Amino acid sequence: MGRWRGALTVGVAVAAALVLGAILLAATGANPLEAAGAIVTGAFGPDGIQDTLAYAVPVAGMATALAIPLRAGLVNLGGEGQLVLGAISAVAVGLHVPGPLGLVAALVAGMLAGGLYAAAAALCETRLGVPLLVTTLLLSYPAMSLAAYLVRFPMRDQGSSLPQSAQLPPDVRLPALAGNGLTVGLFLIVAAVAVYAVVDARTPAGFEARVTGWGPRFAQYAGIDRPRTTLRLLACSGGLAGLVGAIVVLGFPYRFIDGALITPQYTWIGLLAALLAAASPLGTLVAALFFAALTSGGFAMERETQVPRELTAVLQAVLIIFLAATTGLLRRRRSAA
């Protein structure tokens, strides 16, 4: 019954957001049906499906990474820092460790860098009493600044004037599945989602996370160690974020470029997906694909209808607002009943 209620909540929110989006499109003088068709064709047509999948891989990875602590009511706002730190660590290792071992070492280095950095934020809350929202968010800035410094000075590509690292050697690159940047990293993200789903549904750790999300005080009375749970979930979240960063830089253009991981907003769109799906493993994946398609299709809509693609970002924000409003309305009705 709870699953059907959650699906109803999301369905109502999506429908309301789409109606408002159609009104906004009509207000700009565009045909809503034509614009919607351009989004669908641009996202899933023969020329767009590969771009959508390439964009969906980091979005789905970050959505899953942020959903892991969100399941316990913990919000990790430091995804960008963990993503960037994992990416720069992967490049640093990949440039110095040759062969297939270098590829594996780069992926592991990205996971460790992101996981340890997120664990530091968790310790600030559990040991020092600094709220997790503050520590995760503020620790992102030193990580991004460190990465920017590294690619501007010690790791800079001497043959380029851009703030970027040297290219990784050919044997330290993820095999490509398509010419648009899609790599076998797709399978790593799918595997991560599958592991999250199994742990969430079939293990004591997943049950503890869900109970903590239902009510921290109830979880404490039930004997769940909240500091340990916080540390474990943040480490897993940061580790997956670091892995996503490593996957991105181990694909085309096979280097770390300052700002390239921040501009596409993988983290914030991933957070929207996790919020929309209430951190459900499968729901988070579906929501991430939805937002990736919406973003990818927005470029096609702009080309064909002259409607700014920024409207898709407005639609994403409106969707979350409607979801929050719908959730509160349904809860109020259940309380009245």
Automatic annotation (TrEMBL):
It is a multi-pass membrane protein. Keywords: Cell membrane, Membrane, Transmembrane, Transmembrane helix. One of its GO terms (molecular function) is transmembrane transporter activity. Its main location: membrane. The chain crosses the membrane at residues 53-70, 77-97, 103-123, 130-151, 177-199, 233-254, 266-299, 311-330. InterPro entries: ABC_transp_permease. It is found in: Cell membrane. Pfam families: BPD_transp_2 (PF02653). It comes from the Bacteria. One of its GO terms (cellular component) is plasma membrane. PANTHER family: ABC TRANSPORTER, PERMEASE PROTEIN, GUANOSINE ABC TRANSPORTER PERMEASE PROTEIN NUPP. This is ABC transporter permease.
